[in-house]
């Protein structure tokens, strides 16, 4: 028998993160929308993120005098992604480009200001790549504008009012004119905020807060602490869902469809053990509620999945009581990464997902994690993670997280390396650092590498010898900011069966879906961009557009 419906709407969005773009688009098209969120917070993983959007052929590039086009963008996607299976079809790639245009238009309609970030495309040298980058970000937002609703925003660990590119430059220290100007700009912004009483949000919190504010203006309800329990189908079509709210099951009829944008499974130990071992829940920076519920419910209805072995990998370490990701510090001079045998195995300054994939393969092959090796000048000059230079916590040494030695031989003993092998690794690296050419892994030869370089380090901004004691070592593993595989969807974000047929009424986006980028991460904000673009595409399809 059909259920008795407790609530009816046109569009049900599961997840108050990137999926909120769908709620805004659907509301603009005159549809009745409800958003349900498992956690107590609005924002999802997007609130933790850099809050950037990698949008191809966007108007901010053109305003900056940078050439791009739909055709150039498509060539770049093809050059970077290659053949990637059902998650990244030609139609999906085209939909990402076109949907990016629609997302920019959605933001403009709701006065959500975006700016060109200047973050290089990660593979700028490949066909269609842009050295200036296609990344945009939301401008800082004063949280006071949300009133009491400010308490509903998911907190984020970075409190400095700086956008993602500025944070990366701040980590370099004020060593270059660009870095010094960034320190000054962020310092003045911080001072002005304190004097005015503003509560400035940047990065993912700024992006989410602005969309949240727009939804509040439109009167779109968001039910927090309301987990999805079941998808309801009739004659093979999804017609609604059951959720748990205030301890009771609530049946929701969704006349146009249900969008699953509820994250991946980064915090589900069983799924990670099955698909991604030895990577596990202790290495991720994803929210605690990222447990794969929506993916499993889609599978139960016969949905196809792909790329479940992939995540948005970022080299990581585990300081006492927390997890730390290393986006930029591994790219600076006077550091290298070695495997469990003490041998160098990767270009440390390459894009983080690619480095993480290589780390995972190496750890699986050797059965032990590798290490980040730092020389004294790295610790004196640059941030490590978000820890400022020269301010190394004592707990790092006391816990054994960071090892310190006055000689390479002593450091080798602490890390259980063969001293001769480790010494040969360092001597070879030092020779290449002095020459400025990394003949083994080509560090410092790409736009992306150099974006994180120290311009005062000559002749290569990414290379510096490991020769001045003390020396430091930290065990490193492939961390992540979420999983990248999930339900297979088409260009309208419709969930597909293994035969490629849509499940009527069911849509998925974000980390609930398998990535349109396959096994690559092409630019800063690619995952958040795809989450919002395909959420928007789902809303358009439910509204009868782009069918």
Q: How does this model look, in words?
A:
- 33% of the residues lie in helices and 20% in strands.
- It has 16 helices and 21 strands.
- It has 547 residues and is α+β, with helices and mostly antiparallel strands.
- 55% of the residues are buried.
- It is globular and about 70 Å long.
- Among the domains are: 161-201; 315-480, Flavocytochrome C3, Chain A, domain 1.
The gross shape turns out to be globular
The strand count comes to: 21
Just name the CATH architecture of the domain at 315-480. Answer: Alpha-Beta Complex
CATH fold title of the domain at 315-480: Flavocytochrome C3, Chain A, domain 1
Report the major sheet: 8 strands, mixed
Give a short summary of the structure.
This protein is 33% helix and 20% strand.
SSE layout and pairing:
Layout: E1 7-14, H1 20-28, E2 33-36, E3 52-54, H2 59-63, H3 70-81, H4 90-109, E4 114-116, E5 135-138, E6 141-142, H5 164-171, H6 177-196, E7 200-201, H7 203-218, E8 222-223, E9 228-234, E10 237-245, E11 248-260, H8 269-276, H9 293-300, E12 305-306, E13 311-317, E14 324-325, E15 335-338, H10 352-366, E16 370-375, H11 376-381, H12 394-399, E17 402-405, H13 408-415, H14 419-435, H15 447-451, E18 471-483, E19 486-487, E20 494-496, E21 502-508, H16 526-542
Parallel strand pairs: 1-2, 1-11, 2-8, 11-21
Antiparallel strand pairs: 3-5, 4-5, 6-7, 9-10, 10-11, 12-19, 13-14, 13-18, 15-16, 16-18, 17-18, 20-21
Comma- or semicolon-separated keywords:
single chain, 547 residues, alpha+beta, Flavocytochrome C3, Chain A, domain 1, 8-stranded mixed β-sheet, 6-stranded antiparallel β-sheet, 21 strands, 20% strand
């Amino acid at each position: 028998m059909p259920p008795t419906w407790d609530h009816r709407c046109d569009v049900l969005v599961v997840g108050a993160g990137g999926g909120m773009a769908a709620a805004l688009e659907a509301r603009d098209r005159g549809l009745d929308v409800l958003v349900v969120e498992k956690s107590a917070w609005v924002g999802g993983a997007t609130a933790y993120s850099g809050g950037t959007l990698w949008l191809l052929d966007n108007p901010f590039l053109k305003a900056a005098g940078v050439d791009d086009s739909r055709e150039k963008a498509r060539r770049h996607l093809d050059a970077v992604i290659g053949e990637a299976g059902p998650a990244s079809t030609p139609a999906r790639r085209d939909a990402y480009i076109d949907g990016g245009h629609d997302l920019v238009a959605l933001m403009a309609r709701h006065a959500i200001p975006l700016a060109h970030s200047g973050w290089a495309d990660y593979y700028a040298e490949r066909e269609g790549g842009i050295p200036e980058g296609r990344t945009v970000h939301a401008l800082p937002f004063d949280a006071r504008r949300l009133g009491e609703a400010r308490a509903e925003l998911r907190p984020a660990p970075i409190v400095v009012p700086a956008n993602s590119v500025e944070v990366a430059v701040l980590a370099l220290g004020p060593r270059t004119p660009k870095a010094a100007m960034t320190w000054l700009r962020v310092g003045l912004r911080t001072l002005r905020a304190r004097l005015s009483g503003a509560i400035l949000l940047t990065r993912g919190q700024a992006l989410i807060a602005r969309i949240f504010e727009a939804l509040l203006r439109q009167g779109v309800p968001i039910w927090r602490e309301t987990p999805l329990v079941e998808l309801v189908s009739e004659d093979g079509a999804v017609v609604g869902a059951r959720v748990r709210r205030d301890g009771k099951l609530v049946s929701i009829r969704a006349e146009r469809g249900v969008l699953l944008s509820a994250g991946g499974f980064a915090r589900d130990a069983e799924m990670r053990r099955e698909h991604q071992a030895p990577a596990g829940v202790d290495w991720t920076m994803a929210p605690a509620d990222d447990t794969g519920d929506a993916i499993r419910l889609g599978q139960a209805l016969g949905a196809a999945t792909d790329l479940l072995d992939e995540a948005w990998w970022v080299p990581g370490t585990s300081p006492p009581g927390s997890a730390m990701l290393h986006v930029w510090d591994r790219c600076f001079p006077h550091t290298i990464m070695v495997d469990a045998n003490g041998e160098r195995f990767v270009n440390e300054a390459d894009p983080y997902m690619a480095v993480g994939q290589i780390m995972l393969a190496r750890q699986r092959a050797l059965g032990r994690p590798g290490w980040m090796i730092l020389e004294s000048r790295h610790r004196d000059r640059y941030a490590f993670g978000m820890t400022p230079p020269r301010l190394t916590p004592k707990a790092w040494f006391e816990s054994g997280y960071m090892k310190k030695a006055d000689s390479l031989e002593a450091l080798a003993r602490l890390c259980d390396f063969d001293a001769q092998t480790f010494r040969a690794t360092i001597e070879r690296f030092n020779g290449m650092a002095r020459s400025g050419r990394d003949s083994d892994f080509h560090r410092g030869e790409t736009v992306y590498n150099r974006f994180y370089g120290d311009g005062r380090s000559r002749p290569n901004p990414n290379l510096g010898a490991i020769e001045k004691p003390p020396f430091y070592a930290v065990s490193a593993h492939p961390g992540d900011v979420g999983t990248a595989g999930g339900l297979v969807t088409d260009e309208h974000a419709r969930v597909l069966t293994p035969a490629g047929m849509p499940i009527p009424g069911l849509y998925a986006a974000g980390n609930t879906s398998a990535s349109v980028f396959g096994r690559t991460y092409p630019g800063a904000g690619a995952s958040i961009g795809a989450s919002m673009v395909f959420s928007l595409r789902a809303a358009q399809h439910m509204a009868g557009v782009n069918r």
